[in-house]
Specification:
Blueprint: H1 2-30, E1 33-34, H2 51-64, H3 75-94, H4 99-116, E2 123-127, E3 130-132, H5 135-156, H6 162-180, H7 184-204, H8 213-235, H9 247-254, H10 256-271, H11 284-290, H12 295-315, H13 321-341, E4 370-371, H14 376-379
Antiparallel strand pairs: 1-4, 2-3
Helix pairs in contact: 1-2, 1-7, 2-3, 2-7, 2-8, 3-4, 3-8, 4-5, 5-8, 5-10, 6-7, 6-8, 6-12, 7-8, 8-9, 9-12, 9-13
Length: 383
C-alpha cells in the first residue's frame, strides 16, 4: 500500500518537473506569454501561464498508474471531471472565455463528482444545530461547495507560490489522513496532487519562471473539493479507526484562506453592484502587496497562518463545529481588518517611452490572455 503512495508521488513529481522546462521552451519559441498590464497583474515580465499543463500531466499519470480502478470505480469519474476542468482552464488561459461558459463547465465537472462520484455533503455534523440534511438541500449545498472551492483557488492565485503552496498544504494533510484510514485511492489522489505541486513550486516560487494559469488553479480546486467533502464524510463518522470531532470545522479551516477571501471579495463586488467575477485588487494578497510584502513573504505568511489555525482548531475540536467555524471566520476578518490599518508602502512607477516600438511590431489579439510577440526586444525588458 505504502509503495503505491510513494510511487504516485515520484511519478507526479517527475512528470511535472520534466514537463515544465519543455513548456517554458515551447512558450519561448511560440511567444506564448501572460503580459503584465500595469494594473491588476503584479508581475513585471512576460511569463507563460501554461504550467497547469505540467501539473495536470503529473497528477494524471500519478493517479492512472497507481490507483486500482476496479476497486474504486468512482475515480474514473474524478479523472473525467479533471479532464473537463483541464480543457476549460486551458481554453481560458489561451483565449478568454465568458464567465457563464466557465460556470457551465464547472457545474458539469461538479455533476460528475457529486452524481457519479458520490461526493456529497449529507450532514452538517452539528453546525448551527443542524445534522442530517434533506436530499434536495444536500445536493444544493454540495454543488455550491464544490463550485466555490474550485473558484477559490482560481482567485487566490495572484502571487508567486500562493495557490500552489496552499494546495500542497491541503492535499498533504488530507493525504495523510486517508493513508491513516487505509483509504489508498483517496490517499493517492491527494499525494499525486501534492507531488505535482511540489515540482511546480520549484519553478513558481518567487521569482517565478512559469504560472499555473486557470488550468492549474481550477484543477487544484477540484481535487481539494473532492478531498475536503470526503474527509468530512469519513472523519465525521464513528465507523472509522480515527474519527475526528468537528470534522467540517477542520476541513473548512484547511481551506479557509482561499474560501473566505473569495467570499469576501465576491461580497464587496456585489455590494458595489458589479459582477462577482469582475477583476479588482481587493484580494488579501493584493492588500499585502500594497503594504510592501514580497511574493515570497506573502506565501510564507499566509500558509503559516493557515497551519496555525488548523492546529488550533484540531486541538479545540471538542468545542464543536459552530464555535470553531465562527471563531475561524472571526479571526480571518480581524486579520484582514488589521491589514488595512498598516500604512500603504509608497511605490514609484517609471514609464518607459515606446516610440522605438511601433504598433505594427506587435500582433495583438484582443480576446486573448496569451499575447504573441513578434518583437524580440520586448521580451528583453526586465521590470
Amino acid at each position: 500500500m505504502m509503495f503505491d503512495v510513494l510511487l504516485s508521488i515520484v511519478i507526479a513529481f517527475t512528470v511535472t518537473f520534466l514537463a515544465i522546462p519543455v513548456i517554458i521552451n515551447v512558450a519561448e519559441m511560440k511567444k506564448l506569454y501572460d503580459v503584465p498590464d500595469g494594473d491588476r497583474k503584479v508581475h513585471h515580465a512576460p511569463i507563460t501561464p501554461l504550467g497547469g499543463i505540467a501539473i495536470f500531466a503529473g497528477f494524471t499519470f500519478g493517479c492512472l498508474l497507481t490507483i486500482h480502478f476496479e476497486q474504486s470505480y468512482e475515480f474514473q469519474y474524478f479523472i473525467a471531471a479533471a479532464l473537463i476542468i483541464f480543457f476549460l482552464g486551458l481554453k481560458d488561459d489561451i483565449l478568454i472565455i465568458s464567465a457563464i461558459k466557465k460556470f457551465i463547465g464547472q457545474v458539469l465537472a461538479a455533476f460528475m463528482i457529486i452524481y457519479y462520484g458520490g461526493i456529497q455533503i449529507k450532514s452538517m455534523h452539528g453546525f448551527l444545530g443542524i445534522y442530517q440534511l434533506p436530499e434536495t438541500f444536500s445536493l444544493l449545498l454540495s454543488y455550491f461547495a464544490v463550485i466555490v472551492i474550485i473558484n477559490s483557488f482560481n482567485l487566490i492565485d495572484g502571487v508567486d507560490g500562493l495557490a500552489g503552496g496552499l494546495g500542497l498544504m491541503a492535499s498533504t494533510i488530507f493525504g495523510f489522513y486517508f493513508l491513516n484510514e487505509n483509504m489508498l485511492s483517496y490517499s493517492i489522489l491527494a499525494f499525486a496532487m501534492a507531488g505535482s505541486l511540489l515540482a511546480f513550486l520549484i519553478f513558481n516560487f518567487q521569482p517565478a519562471k512559469i504560472f499555473m494559469g486557470d488550468t492549474g488553479s481550477l484543477l487544484i480546486g477540484s481535487i481539494c473539493a473532492i478531498l475536503a467533502i470526503k474527509f468530512i464524510n469519513v472523519a465525521g463518522s464513528s465507523d472509522v479507526s480515527t474519527p475526528i470531532a468537528a470534522a467540517p470545522a477542520i476541513a473548512f479551516t484547511i481551506l479557509i484562506i482561499p474560501l473566505l477571501d473569495t467570499l469576501r471579495v465576491f461580497a464587496i463586488r456585489i455590494f458595489y453592484r458589479r459582477s462577482p467575477f469582475s477583476p479588482d485588487r481587493n484580494h488579501i494578497h493584493h492588500i499585502l502587496l500594497d503594504r510592501g510584502f514580497s511574493h515570497r513573504n506573502i506565501t510564507l505568511l499566509l500558509v503559516s497562518i493557515n497551519l496555525v489555525l488548523i492546529a488550533l482548531v484540531y486541538y479545540g475540536r471538542f468545542l464543536g463545529c459552530t464555535i470553531l467555524i465562527l471563531s475561524a471566520i472571526a479571526f480571518f476578518f480581524m486579520f484582514t481588518a488589521l491589514l488595512y490599518t498598516i500604512k500603504v508602502k509608497p511605490s514609484l512607477t517609471i514609464a518607459q517611452a515606446t516610440s522605438n516600438m511601433p504598433d505594427d511590431n506587435i500582433e495583438r489579439k484582443p480576446a486573448s490572455k496569451i499575447v504573441s510577440f513578434v518583437n524580440e526586444n520586448i521580451l528583453e525588458q526586465k521590470n
